[in-house]
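hey all, quick one before standup. I had two proteins in the batch that finished overnight and I want to keep them in one place so we stop losing track of which output belongs to which input. First protein below, input sequence then structure tokens straight from the run.
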Amino acid sequence: HFQGIYRAKDRSLAHLEALVRMKDAQSPGDVIMPGQFIPHAETTGKIVEIDRWVLHKVVDLLASRPDIPSIAINISGRSFDEPGFPDYISRLLLSHQVEPRRLLVELTETAAVSDMRDAQVFIDALRATGCTVCLDDFGNGFASFAYLKQLKADVLKIDGLFIRDLPVDRDSEIFVRGMVAMARDMGKITIAEFVENEEIYNILLEIGIDQVQGY
């Protein structure tokens, strides 16, 4: 499945995010949501194969659909243990003649922080391929701002925990303003997820968010 991420100023499509779903073999036509199979896949290590499967599907799509500006994929923390993965991505893009900038790679902040050294090397290698790196769920972990100095991501996706309560939670607004201001000063793009109504959208527009995504 795919979800659009839009530029806040004019609501034009910035890129798509690929969302993996599992077909339900016992109930044809139904799908199993990630929360029901991703934790098990991470525990067993199967998630690394899923990462590669999604990568192949998305690169194939980008190659066949030049009208799609770019697509974001989520990479699990287990893939940090695969030092050759960024080079694998680079070779796959090259073989399909897809510009690296059209592939955004999202890594969750919690996964990156849990293995900072490997994450740092992984992110540097990804950026060297020409891909855009996005730090997902930003603000979820402790001392998030401090990690920005080490994790050289291009994009920060602010955790929906701070976004969904913006109209009624002054503390959330203070946090979001701080994240957006710091990201702007560091030359990073900001995305807000869980933007589900006009009130939240208008607050974010005033704050200066770059891009918005629903839920």
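OK second protein, same deal, sequence then tokens:
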Amino acid sequence: MGCGGTYVQWDKNWSVTGPSDYLEAKLNWDTGLDWKKTLKKYCAHAFGKGAPFMEKYYLLLVEKQHGAGLEAGSYHSFYLIYDQVFIQDAQALFDSAARAADTEKNKTLIAYSREPVEMLEIYLAYRRAFT
């Protein structure tokens, strides 16, 4: 396609952007990769036996955000995309992943990855309170 290069900005917030950073690096290197297979590989390496539940969480996240058909940049449209049902479904997947994980490292990585959903729940509660 004539692309000479790309520029990426990665921050130290892999609990939020870990999978997308991994996918971006892999797909920039080989654009022919299947992103869902690449996500599966990421989850297997990061979460061990908890991987199937984490993969379901990330696919649910993609479905919700992509399916919303809007993008405000940052978090400004999150209240239009996510709701309490999403949070409950996501928390159930994290709980299942943590139970399935067979190493302390995997359990820790799952716990870190849960943080964005916890932040989302706080943000939605905050937004409800001020509106």
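Flagging for whoever picks this up: The mean pLDDT is 91. The CA atoms of residues 42 and 112 lie 15 Å apart.
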